[in-house]
Design goal:
By secondary structure, the protein is mainly alpha-helical. It is built from 15 helices and 2 strands. It has a two-stranded antiparallel ribbon with strand order 1-2. Helix 1 runs antiparallel to helix 5 and helix 5 runs antiparallel to helix 6. The two termini are 18 Å apart. Keywords: Antibiotic resistance, Cell membrane, Membrane, Transmembrane, Transmembrane helix, Transport.
């Protein structure tokens, strides 16, 4: 069988082979690197300011440029995978990310560090969408939940492990080692990926949609740039008479033009709109944006309170969040198996409500300036909620998407999460400037509750009895 042959239907497959499990390990390692990198750098900001003799506004770009080059290209990179195969895009992204991390670790000044971080984001954009696409290809519907459980556990663990790893490395070895760690991990994962990932090429995309690429990239760039950097410009003038709100509005207009162009592009549009007819996928994309909003936004007020108000070191603050990571990671495989058997709606609803309640408990503890350990019950509840929500959400997102749209669906899904993360970071920062750290939790809780309502009102989402595998 050549690499371009269509895979056998999932219904004919048996349990996952050793090669499929080995491939899953590689995918989890790659995703762990990417997710950790989105949060680990924030811990090192003070050390970067000191060692590189840079201003705080310049160092903010170390995070901003990464989010920008990560979120914007994913629609395009997922479409490339439909054309050239997800393994090739995964390997290319992993290699680019690892080389860029080496450049960041050895950067002599802030300008080189920012450039390296931009290339890191591009590598992440190449790699990330391929994880869901390959898992959906490798595992049949009855076994896919377990695989998604491992992926969800990895994502949850990486999200909250970033500050802990960052604190330990910055305190003991220096900020450069947050990047050296990724070089070591990336090199090992790259060697493994060349050996165990299947060179499967769907061959669905016959051409590239240049107008769609231009409009989507321009629109997303303006929105992400405006939202991420609006605080730096006090939401006012950016260049001459051009203001940050005008830039964001222009981005929204361009995205509207992009959607309109996709409506009338009949031959291989960048984003086939029929994808959103799949209710499982549409609701999953909405909820993953809400999770990105809340999971990213919760760390800024928490870290500020723990370090500024309570006087904890970066390592101590990271250790406080470690139990949350542990419970989310431990639950992943179990919830993955469960999501193959029950309606994912109930798992999602329980997880989102658990996260909202956990955030409320944390906000109440910080409001009273209580000792740090009193935040632990709320954080554990957040970890429980993450474990319940992330795995069935990933499993549901691509469950009923036609095979020829899975690459595009994966890119769209992760783009939604990244946009949610950017909005969550910007919203929390804006609330922190205007009011107290406790008030910053309110929009996060509201977004989680709205996402829970969306999951609750839709009948049959992810129901394995009603939603057979689309392969």
């Amino acid at each position: 069988m050549t690499s371009t042959e269509a895979p056998k239907p999932a219904s004919r497959r048996t349990s996952p082979t050793h090669s499929a499990r080995a491939a899953l390990t590689v995918l989890c390692l790659g995703l762990f690197m990417i997710v950790v990198d989105t949060s680990i750098v924030s811990v090192a900001v003070p050390a970067m300011v000191r060692d590189l003799h840079a201003g705080l506004n310049a160092v903010v770009w170390v995070t901003s440029v990464y989010l920008l080059t990560y979120a914007v290209p994913m629609l395009f990179t997922s479409r490339l995978a439909d054309r050239h195969g997800p393994k090739r895009l995964f390997v290319a992204g992993l290699a680019l990310f690892s080389v860029a991390c080496l450049g960041a670790a050895t950067a002599p000044n802030i300008q080189v560090l920012i450039a390296a971080r931009a290339i890191e984001g591009l590598g992440a954009a190449l790699l990330t969408p391929q994880t869901l696409t390959l898992i959906t290809h490798l595992f049949p519907d009855g076994e896919r939940g377990r695989a998604m459980g491992m992926l969800g556990a990895t994502s949850g663990l990486a999200t909250v492990a970033g500050p802990l790893l960052g604190g330990l490395l910055v305190d003991r070895l220096g900020w450069e080692w947050i990047f050296y760690l990724n070089v070591l991990l990336g090199t090992g994962t790259l060697v493994m990926s060349l050996r165990v990932l299947p060179d499967w090429r769907p061959g669905h995309a016959r051409r590239i949609d240049p107008l769609g690429i231009l409009l989507s990239a321009a629109g997303l760039t303006l929105i992400v740039f405006g939202v991420q950097n609006g605080r730096s410009y006090d939401w006012g003038a950016l260049v001459g008479p051009v203001t940050v709100p005008q830039v964001i509005v222009a981005g929204v207009v361009l995205l509207g033009a992009f959607v309109l162009s996709q409506r009338f592009t009949r031959d291989d549009p960048l984003l086939p709109l029929r994808l959103f007819r799949d209710r499982n996928f549409s609701v999953s994309a909405l909820i993953t944006a809400a999770l990105g909003f809340s999971m990213t936004g919760m760390f800024l007020p928490l870290v500020l309170h723990l370090q500024t108000t309570l006087g904890l070191t970066p390592t101590q603050a990271g250790l406080l969040t470690a139990p949350m990571a542990l419970i989310a990671a431990t639950m992943g495989p179990f919830i993955g198996r469960l999501s193959d058997r029950v309606n994912a709606k109930y798992l999602l609803l329980s997880g989102l409500l658990g996260m909202a309640l956990g955030l409320a408990l944390v906000a109440l503890r910080t409001l009273r300036d209580a000792p740090a350990w009193q935040c632990v019950p709320g954080l554990l509840l957040c970890g429980l909620g993450m474990g319940l929500a992330l795995v069935p959400l990933n499993n549901t997102a691509l469950r009923t998407v036609p095979p020829e749209l899975r690459g595009t669906a994966s890119g769209t899904y992760f783009t939604a999460r990244q946009l949610g993360a950017v909005l969550g970071s910007a919203t929390t920062s804006a609330v922190l400037q205007a009011r107290s750290a406790q008030a910053a939790y309110l929009p996060l809780i509201l977004v989680l509750l709205l996402a829970g309502a969306a999951a609750a009102i839709l009948r049959g989402i992810g129901d394995p009895q009603r939603m057979p595998d689309a392969t």
